[in-house]
Amino acid sequence: MLLREDAWMTGPRLADLLGVTPRSVRAYVTALNARVPDGDAVVSGAAGYRAGPAARAALAARAGAGSTPRARLHGLVRALLDDEAGIDVFDTAERLHVSEATLEADLVRIRSLLEGTRLTLERDRDVVRLRGAERDQRRLLSRLAHDEMDAADFPVDPFRFALAGGAIPPEAVSPFKDALVAALGGLGYYVNELAIADVLLHIAIAADRVASGRELEGADRPGDDSAPGADPVAEAIGRLAREQLGVELGAGDLAHLARLVLTRIVTPGGADPADLARAGLDAEVEAAVRAEVVQASSDYQVDLVDEAFILRLALHVQNLLRRAQEESRARNPLTRSLKAAYPMIFEVAVSVVSGLQERLGLRADDDEIAYVAMHIGGRLERSRRAESLLTATIVCPGYYELHEVLRSRVDHSLGQGIEVVRVITAMDPRESEIDSDLVLSTVPLPAAAERVVLIQPFLTEADVERVQQAAARLRRARRLARLREELSRYLSEDAYVHPLPDIGEEAIIRLLGGRLVEAGLIGEDYIENTIQRERLSSTAFSDALAVPHALQMTAQRTAIAVGVAAGSVAWGSGRVQVVALAAFSEQDRDAFQTVFEQLVEVFGEGESVQRIVRRGAAFAGFLDELVAVIDG
């Protein structure tokens, strides 16, 4: 948390976020500093704690990390995967320096791990063997590597785990990747660098297993047609595997890996929709995506209806369906940041995926939803930039071409965020002449002082920075002013809970939703729809705030039920301090974006959260502090 925050954090705030006491936080800091020679993993001061120079070294120096139950379990599975003849229970226990009872307990855990994988453990007295198709064994190895990545507190190399003790050195993966990206580019494909590590892991595992005599049985999957473009991609993978990894991949492996590449990391080059249609787009998928895009455009009042965008998204969804059929996933390293920084875009993506779930039986996790959000965000970026454009008046006394040069410089340096609507060359302009958001003046002005930014006649870098800061303050003030107006209508003491009990997401949703049901604002169906939305993707958009809500805007009147924890409550894979259950009516559709995005913004600022939470014992104190934070 300290590394992610990159700023001072108080002990009570850390305690709340972790769900422990401040005393435990002090103990954690002591333990972390004991891991490094100079004891500077965490720096303490009057402002609390912050990550020190050796913070990452302390994470990497966890005592006994290689002998933890998780590491031992994964090592045991690796041994079973590597040895077709099986492992001897007594010899393995001795090698791992554990008792036979401990190893037997690990085998019970492995059987649980194998549920739903089509793999089984067979035992003949003291020998245990892993049985199942090669494809399923590889999938298990990939899953273990991803589990190691997910469990780590800092980036780990999945290739070192997956290829440990094998024929393929982990160092060979990086040159192979560079060559593969170049080859795919030469075939006319755009490469998704965010997902390529996952596909490289599959290729590395395949090469390592083939080098050990474990080829994939037969064709990729009986009855499956090869994906369009599979042959040249398969040929490129085979050639590079020979040249870079020294492995000759068979037809089954090449077909399987080509399908992974085509469904996970590449899209056809060019923006011509006809090119996409030729890429083998299924008509049913295209129709479903088109219908959901049109619906989302109407529901959230955003401009998504564009032919090229719809076809590209449909191709992505088709690949997503293929991944789901193969019980594989494409991980997205930007999921967390996308969710926190662009909650509204992420919400539109959730809505689209929810509709596709009903139409196509689509199954998607947060990583897959984040990829859909990236498609949507790219489409909306132009319109969002237009909405945030501010107008400006330049005041520059006329002298030869000085004002024209200044305007040209302003357009060049600030044109993406500011539009110059007027240039005034008088020394004392009338206030009635200035109706823009900002005034960029080379002379002091008594009028419109709150909007004036003094600049030099020849624009400097410092001038540009001051104007950008003033523009950012103005945009924020406008957004938060709208939020304050909306919240004053939607919050009420009857729908306020403190302290919020730590009873799980669904129970909290029912608790807060019950307050709105009692007020006659929503029905029980809204609560059930909110729980359904929560199961699709967690609504914890920051470390402090969750905003559960239904995708349908069916409330009688828009209202927000708020719960504030005494410390924090479990939500999704983390913990939050405030839960705001939002119920929107059809009439307040316009307010959804304002409230949703700006509420997440306010509660994304650590110091502001603590101010609000500390005064949250009573509704009046919570509302006063929330308004004070909004007003700055």
From TrEMBL:
Superkingdom assignment: Bacteria
Matching InterPro entries: BglG_antiterminators, PRD, PRD_sf, PTrfase/Anion_transptr, PTS_EIIA_type-2_dom
Any one Pfam family match given in the protein's UniProt record, by short name: PTS_EIIA_2
Sequence ranges assigned to domain PRD in this UniProt record: 280-386
Keyword annotations of the record: Repeat
Endpoints of the signal sequence: none
GO biological process: regulation of DNA-templated transcription
SUPFAM superfamilies, alphabetized: Phoshotransferase/anion transport protein, PTS-regulatory domain, PRD
Domain named PTS EIIA type-2: residues: 489-632
Matches recorded under PANTHER family: CRYPTIC BETA-GLUCOSIDE BGL OPERON ANTITERMINATOR, TRANSCRIPTIONAL REGULATOR MANR
Protein name per the record: Putative licABCH operon regulator
